[in-house]
Amino acid sequence: MASSQQSKYKVRKEYNEPIEAPDLTVKSWLRWIWKQLTSMKIALFLLLLLAAAAIPGSIYPQRSADPNGVALYFKNNPELAKFLDTLQLFDVYASSWFSAIYLLLFISLIGCLLPRIAVHYKALRELPPAPPTNLSRLPVYKKVNKETNSLQSAFEYLKSNKYKTVVSSDPKTEEILEIRAEKGYLRETGNLVFHISLVGVLISVALGGALSFNGQRVLVEGDTFVNNRAAYDSFTPGLLFTENELAPFSMRLDQFSITYDYINPANYAKPLDFRANVTTSVKGKQSQQLIRVNEPIGLPNAKVYLTGNGFAPEIVVRDIQGNITFSGPVVFLPQDGNMTSLGVIKVPDAPKQFGMMAFFYPTVGKLATGALTSTHPYPFDPVMTVNVYVGDLGLDKGMNSNVYELDTHSLKQIAGGKSGTKALKLVPGETVDLPQGLGTIELKSIKRFASLDITYNPLDIWVLITVVITFFGLILMLLIPRRRIWIRKTAEGAEIGALAKSRDESLERIVKEIAQTMKKSK
């Protein structure tokens, strides 16, 4: 008795001793982090996080696609824009935090896939597993009477339906005693194909982005664009892009036209179609092509998209002696749906520097306040009004300036506004005098311009291919069930048990068909 009490005491003493946790080394921490990172739960979380991280890219203008929009955002919201720029929200897809999520997702998927590929390869080579001891515990179970039992017919049914089967027979009578069958390996194959192709999508997008470029050019009717970096209004290359990949070609905008809706009252005068007729020249071979919205044209190492349009009045400015100090079309930016447009004209080469802020009304009309507006986007009755400012334009300081903006803070207004002189008003073909002997301004004609987005991504076809393969793998994963069926001979006849890896509505029907097949063979 004493020895028994002493034994119990020792157990209690050992039980009450403090537990010593193993030391957590750097290696063990790295192993734990790797295990967490390569779990499918983390991979799905990173995929959702990547989708959420891309949302700001659709909310805020991006420098790579809309540099003018970014400049306008800075102008309208200077303080907020500085804060957003600190967070890299104007360069979302090139930001450090987006790249980090992208890289972690890539590593997580690779870490998830490699062990699963090995396990799936091993499963493809293995035979169906042995049946559980109690088949009646399986989700689908059915007994077959002894009088109608025939496992041979069940075996033939399973083989004809492409099941991997293994039979156990009586060595003396060769009667089938047990059947093990499995089908649906393509489900896991589809799952792996889905995730492998998803990695392919990530690689194609990342590498394609590094090798690609995106450029914008505003082209006025009659002007020609030659594909070199200096000809772009804005140009955003990838990290691995080199200028040698800019293939030699040229493109001239012959005509830009719009079709308006004059039939549907609810959509009256709204644009239905935009068409940019261009002449392209590749290696000396010219061709006429048409660019429409969502219908780009393909050129060597480039695709050309139509992204915007507007008016470009052709203006000629002469000094008091009649010398031309400015001549050419000026791009006016649309301000509303009826194409009321704003343009800036800077004349630094005149004897006295001056600038003009002009408004163009395709079809002029008046508001109740007496202010001019446009009542239709087509130039049925075009009018241009001009406000004139004199002073140093700041172009001689060697600093970049926005051609679409005129900084009036250091300038003096001498026409329009509160200057005491009415704004100048011109119609096409008209010439009027500028105030204070600055010369004359002529509205020679009205042209249109097209905003073109020129892009190049050498791996865009691989992005498409991997996306298609991704959907193919997803279809296999969703449509093909993975199931196991066991049939065992018993003293009462036979019993059938079936198990599916996921929800399988047809599993019970298949078991009934097997049982029916066995009954027919009596």
Can you lay out the helices and strands and say which pair or pack?
Elements: H1 2-15, H2 26-37, H3 40-53, H4 55-59, H5 67-76, H6 78-86, H7 96-125, E1 140-145, H8 151-160, E2 164-169, E3 176-183, H9 185-211, E4 213-220, E5 224-226, E6 234-237, E7 250-261, E8 270-282, E9 285-292, E10 297-299, E11 302-318, E12 324-329, E13 333-334, E14 341-347, E15 354-361, E16 364-366, E17 372-374, E18 383-390, E19 412-415, E20 424-426, E21 430-434, E22 439-456, H10 460-479, E23 483-489, E24 493-500, H11 507-520
Antiparallel strand pairs: 1-24, 2-3, 3-23, 4-6, 4-22, 5-7, 7-8, 8-9, 10-11, 11-12, 11-22, 13-14, 14-15, 15-18, 16-17, 18-19, 18-20, 21-22, 23-24
Helix pairs in contact: 3-7, 5-6, 7-9, 8-11, 9-10
Structural features, described:
- The chain has three domains: 25-123, no CATH class; 127-184 and 485-520; 213-456, no CATH class.
- The model is unreliable at 6-13 (pLDDT under 50).
- It has helices spanning 2-15, 26-37, 40-53, 55-59, 67-76, 78-86, 96-125, 151-160, 185-211, 460-479, 507-520, and strands at 140-145, 164-169, 176-183, 213-220, 224-226, 234-237, 250-261, 270-282, 285-292, 297-299, 302-318, 324-329, 333-334, 341-347, 354-361, 364-366, 372-374, 383-390, 412-415, 424-426, 430-434, 439-456, 483-489, 493-500.
- A hairpin with an 8-residue loop joins strand 7 (250-261) and strand 8 (270-282).
- It is elongated and about 120 Å long.
- It contains eleven helices and 24 strands.
- Helix 9 packs antiparallel against helix 10 (460-479).
- The strands form five sheets. Strands 4, 6, 10, 11, 12, 21 and 22 form a seven-stranded antiparallel β-sheet that branches. Strands 13, 14, 15, 18, 19 and 20 form a six-stranded antiparallel β-sheet that branches. A five-stranded antiparallel β-sheet has the order 1-24-23-3-2, covered by helices on one side.
- The protein is an alpha+beta fold.
